[in-house]
Amino acid sequence: MLKKKWMVSGAVAIFLLSSSLGVLAGANLQPIKAYLDSSMKIVVNGKPFQPQSAQGAVLAPISYNGNTYLPVSAISKAVGVAVEYQQQSHTIFLGEKIAGVPIADSFSGHLRTKDPQLTTYNGKDYKDVFFNNASGNRGSGFMLYPKGKYQKLYIQVAAVGKDIETFFVQDSDTDVKLKMDSITVEDGLKTFEIDINGLESLYVGAQLKDGGSLFVPLTTSYYK
Fold this sequence. Notes:
The protein is mostly beta strands.
């Protein structure tokens, strides 16, 4: 298990080195004398691990003042922790965010609507929703693109008219199901918490019956 203090220190020191020169030029940085240590071996969950940049270049740990610093973006993916650097606030986020980010920001689907006649559920207007109220037995779904920035997905779903026997969220790159469940009309608006471990893209899907609809509010479903 990586020590939190050591990992965060590495994040500040190394993650910025993999960022753009423009970010570095605008940062309040202090020059230091450090050493690349290519002899150090890294093992993650019993398997050898070689850190690499987003472009595939091999990255070596850095030794400075008795401490070892690792490239946070590579290590975070290896241990299943989302990482994001926000340039405006000059902040690195590991794991869950402080505040949720609505999935509306990365939603992709043609059944999105802001029509108040369709966005209202149990007397509350959710303003922006995915709503499939077509006829016939059918599959329904949409894509989400968290782009590796988030640790958790909190998604709200309601079955309208008929129960939904199969609802699922899967990693669209590997087709691995992250969550699979059923939703009854009596459940109301059901919230699912899903560990997405910095995944790039997701598919949210359901099998619907004739006379049944799928309701997903995009403003109260969010990433963290």
